[in-house]
Amino acid sequence: MTLTLPLTTPGPTDDVWTVGDLTGAVKRLVEGEFPPVWVRGEVTQCRAWPSGHWYFTLRDGMCQVRCCMWKQTAMRAGKPPADGTEVFVLAKPGIYESKGEFQLIVSRFLPTAAIGAAQRELERVRALLQQDGLFELTRKRAIPDLVCTIAVVTSTAGAALRDIITVVGRRWPCATLLVVDARVQGDGAAADLVRALRVVNRLAGVELCIIGRGGGAREDLAAFNDESVCRALAALRVPTISAVGHETDVSLTDLIADLRAATPSAAAEAAVADIEAILHRIDGVGRRLAHGLSGRTRVAAERLERTADRLHCAIGGTITGPRHRLDRLTAQLDALSPLRVLGRGYAMPTAEPGRVLKRAAEFTAGLRFDLRVSDGQVKARVE
Amino acid sequence: MSLPSIADELARLEDIVRRLEADDVDLDAALALFEEGVTRLRAARERLAAAELKVQAVLEDAGGELRLTELDDD
């Protein structure tokens, strides 16, 4: 820590600070410099005021410091501790300006004995659940693809629900969230969580259940280490995701659930598909559909062409047979034509009307007849 | 709950595509599959485009009956 204040004032007449200036400056210095820190000590003179705030002194063998704990924190701490109770406090050092006092503002208050007891209880429950095989990996069910109806067991007043709604609404707006409100900390939280989980088992159409809460003090997460809550979670008909606290917190429900998510937002991410990815998948199906049909019509077209070729071959055979015969007959007829004979220099005499004169006796003197030659006919008379 | 789930729709679409891509489907059946596929694709796209997250609170009355109500957004 380095002091950067102008403390080298030369004399009492120049640049005098007021008490307020000084305490204010020290307050800014101290409070700006220290993050919340864990402090261990003994509580003495603890007083709970009607406002609900507690004031006490924390001391060790050598030193002491005044502590202030606001109503919200005090309510979670239960009854004011007896003098000499050893505690851990999470506290931010500060200055109470109107009294010029150094003090700690306590945000978490844990009797060391309670920590020991809580730890022993956690180990006892863990051992029981383990003995019953409830942590076995073979029990884990897959989170279903594309779920539509999700039960959420959490406090409707908590940040966890808001995070889940935001993430699911963004990623998979096709979903329906059925929220079963439950107290997630304090007295009766475990019983309320068990009731809520049993309600989930009676809901129709639910495909997945998320149980969880946002971050908090370790003792605030205690209900999620409760044996009855763990057993109720294990008895759910549908796959489960547990998301309790921050990344670093691991509760027994995390070990029981089919999937542990680091935070409620992460649980929502794991629970639902991303609509963009699904639209992409649908586009892929559309392309395959078009390609499948064009492939199928191409096959049909090829088959049709092959059939046409075969048909052509078959029909072609039946046509060429008679055609060749016709050609042959034409050639024969042509060869036999009298006109071809005339072409070689012969002539054909014909009397009216077209009678061919074949014998000499038919040529009587003075007979007029036609003489047919290759390119026409001429008039003739017998002398 | 009258509409099939999106998962069922996608599964049916992918089945149509697989059958269309098979060699043994005849042309009439292929055309019918294609038409069904196009109709379902369009419906699925419209459904996703119109989707809006529904958030409901589950309440249990004194008799143990469950009922759903819109969650108050406070």
Can you give me a brief rundown of this structure?
Chain A is an alpha/beta fold and 383 residues long. In chain A, 41% of the residues lie in helices and 23% in strands. Chain A is rod-shaped and about 180 Å long.
Total of helices of chain B? 2
Number of strands of chain A: 14
Termini separation of chain B (Å)? 29 Å
The most extensive interface between chains reads: A-B, 39 and 37 residues
**Biggest sheet features of chain B:** 2 strands, antiparallel
Q: What would you call the quaternary organization?
A: heterodimer
CATH architecture of the largest domain in chain A: 3-Layer(aba) Sandwich
Structural class of chain B: alpha+beta
Gross morphology of chain A: rod-shaped
Determine the structural class of chain A based on helices, strands and strand pairing. alpha/beta
Q: Taking all residues together, what is the mean pLDDT of chain A?
A: 87
- Terminus-to-terminus distance of chain A: 163 Å
Largest sheet of chain A: 5 strands, mixed, barrel
Order of strands side by side in the largest beta sheet of chain B?
A: 1-2
